[in-house]
Amino acid sequence: MSALHLNLVVPCYNEEEVLGETSRQLLAQIDRLQREGIADERSSITFIDDGSKDGTWRIIENLHRGDSRIHGLKLSRNRGHQNALLAGLLSAQGEVLVSLDADLQDDIEAIPKMIAAYRNGADIVYGVRARRDTDTAFKRNTARMYYALLRKFGVDVIPDHADYRLMSRRALEALRDFREVNLFLRGIIPLLGFRTEIVYYDRLSRFAGESKYPFVKMLALALEGVFSFSTVPLRWITIMGATLAFASFCFGFWALIIKLFEPQLALPGWTSIVVPMFFLGGLQLLALGVIGGYLSRVYTETKQRPRFIIEKSI
Ligand code: UDP
Ligand code: MG
Hints:
This protein is an alpha/beta fold and 314 residues long. The protein has helices at residues 19-35, 56-66, 81-91, 110-119, 137-152, 169-176, 185-188, 215-227, 232-261, 271-303, and strands at residues 6-12, 44-49, 70-75, 96-99, 124-131, 161-168, 196-202, 310-313. It has 10 helices and 8 strands. Helix 9 packs antiparallel against helix 10.
């Protein structure tokens, strides 16, 4: 079988501490794949600088000078991991692209297995974490609950799959047609269809630097997954509202009966006023928040602003 044009797509935000080692290991992996006749001589690595504030771009330029197989894409400002990744996926050349993190947490030994799955006919190969004991217990548990919740909401996501995956040219061209601005690639990719395969790998720890995904960014991504892919929360608040309205109606009817037939029992009650007031107030705010979540997305989607702007490309 002829060698394929492979391109590794790596979004980077303030990753100056890891880029040297990452490119060394990725190049070694490409060398090996080229020697074994799996990857051809055009195979390369594309680093996307997501508007880093440190020396990330300078390092990418140096790496490019040292080895022409290293390509770089510089976004005009920080747009977040998902947008940087999309910029890479839609711009990089190659028959197959493999997206992975800059910190080598995605074990690169899975790449040959992904290519083998592609050879067997898969257009999309998901890297799924078999073990993730290098992540904190908090991250593991919240992630597990989150994936369960998403599935309850009817969103087709692969549990324990982040953005480590192989995509064929066909799948990438299909991805281009998804014009949404609010990006949650993990939700979009399963919508593409095609034959998919899973490759398991062990999640390693970040070998240098610290996470560029603080809790707030993680939460934002999690909300994206819900609001951009499911309208079930809207149905839930409708059902909740209807149930409460019915209960209130029964309560009112009961109060009227008491008032008419047992007036001595109908004492002015503080609890029965205050408790439902707080409860309903809270519920209404929650419902407004959920509706606001959808409304804000309609707002951003209708503007159709560009999802990334490339400043430079080497
Ligand atoms: N990243 C990015 N833009 C951002 C934040 C992160 O391109 O605004 C990249 C980062 O450089 C890394 C990947 O996204 O390659 C995953 O980030 P990180 O490893 O910090 O996340 P964690 O593994 O802690 O979830
Ligand atoms: Mg990481």
